[in-house]
Write a structure and sequence with these properties.
- This protein is an alpha/beta fold.
- 42% of the residues lie in helices and 16% in strands.
- It has three domains: 5-48, Orthogonal Bundle (434 Repressor (Amino-terminal Domain)), CATH 1.10.260; 60-155 and 284-311, Rossmann fold (3-Layer(aba) Sandwich); 158-282, Rossmann fold.
- It has helices at 5-12, 16-24, 31-43, 50-57, 75-88, 102-112, 128-132, 158-170, 186-201, 216-226, 239-251, 284-299; strands spanning 62-67, 92-97, 118-122, 140-143, 152-155, 176-179, 207-209, 233-236, 261-266, 278-281, 308-311, 314-316.
- Helix 10 packs across helix 11 (239-251).
- One of its GO terms (molecular function) is DNA binding.
Length: 325
């Protein structure tokens, strides 16, 4: 017969709340107490009953996480980091794909109702008006989207994009293009603005292509359009578009970087490309951890409020950029 929490507590001479806390909030106990509880649990093959805990505490012990495109390689590191952080505190993460569709994002939030204690909403495509309609906003945190009075984690691409433009200009590039991402993307708006600002700082006017949904095929399409211009370097919204761009250029008989230099953003698939991709490195995994930490803090009586956490970026130079032809 399986041992119960109270039996385990009696054996150890501890209160049931202390034993429960060893599983849910070990940081609140001494290392020795946690070690004793976990050792006894292992001897008896005891597993804490999450469903019983949900009934007694009113918590589901679940966190919802919505991303606009689960196939985009930016999001798996974020999801993995969020799951790892949540699991360490006894929570599970339910992941949903918004399919780049504001209505589907709202549907997913509706499905989560009653099943999760809070939601991490990544790069939402919903309008600001619709985001303000989300109930229990003190249990929702945005990643890469800024809405007044809503908590958010922002990966600030400004510095990294400025570094990308400076890098290309130092290599002699004066005809630079920006390959835009999804039209509803906050990150795309920020990155395009940063490229425009820095190019104009150097007395340049960049070519603007897009907006594009982040797919390999979209990058190939951008390559066809760039091949008919005088552009010698391109900065893509993300690595997915950048890799498609490189493929399209190579299919057209153009060499990277000899004929056209390419810079990506997010730095998530760059070392597996040919040539290895110069990219603006963002903090996807860090964003996942920080977002979950903020939610967990609010569950314990803290307040996220309108907190705003900004994560920096920087350019990582590899072999997809070189001197202007």
């Amino acid at each position: 017969m399986a041992i119960t929490l109270s039996q385990l507590a009696a054996e150890l001479g501890l209160s049931t709340s202390t034993v429960s806390r060893a599983f849910s909030h070990p940081e609140r106990l001494t290392a020795e107490t946690v070690s004793r509880v976990l050792a006894a649990a292992q001897r008896h093959a005891y597993q804490p009953n999450r469903f019983a805990k949900a009934l007694t505490t009113g918590k589901s012990m679940n966190i919802g996480l919505v991303v606009p495109d689960i196939a985009n390689p930016f999001f798996p590191p974020l999801i993995k980091a969020a799951q790892h952080r949540a699991r360490a505190h006894g929570y599970s993460v339910y992941v949903a794909d918004g399919d780049e569709n504001p209505k589907e994002e709202w549907n997913q939030l509706t499905h989560f109702a009653g099943h999760v204690d809070g939601v991490v909403l990544c790069s939402p495509r919903m309008s600001t008006t619709k985001l303000r309609e989300i109930p229990a906003q003190d249990r929702v945190i945005l990643v890469n989207r800024e809405v007044p009075n809503m908590p958010c984690i922002l990966i600030d691409s400004t510095v990294g994009m400025h570094q990308a433009v400076d890098h290309l200009v130092s290599l002699g590039h004066h005809e630079i293009a920006y390959i835009g991402g999804p039209a509803r993307s906050w990150a795309n708006t920020q990155r395009r603005k940063a490229v425009l600002e820095r190019c104009r700082h150097h007395g340049l006017e960049p070519a603007l292509l897009g907006p594009y949904v982040s797919t390999h095929e979209a990058g190939v399409d951008a390559a066809r359009k760039l091949g008919r211009t005088a552009v010698t370097a391109a900065i893509a919204f993300d690595d997915v578009l950048a890799v498609g761009l490189v493929s399209g250029l190579q299919e057209a008989g153009l060499r990277v970087p000899e004929d056209l230099s390419v810079v990506g953003c997010d730095d998530v698939i760059t070392e597996h490309t040919a040539p290895p991709l110069t990219s603006v490195s963002g903090g996807a995994a860090t964003a996942g951890r920080v977002a979950v930490d903020a939610l967990l803090s609010s569950f314990e009586g803290g307040s996220i409020g309108a907190s705003r956490t900004v994560l920096p970026t920087e350019l990582v130079v590899r072999r997809s950029t070189g001197p202007a032809r």
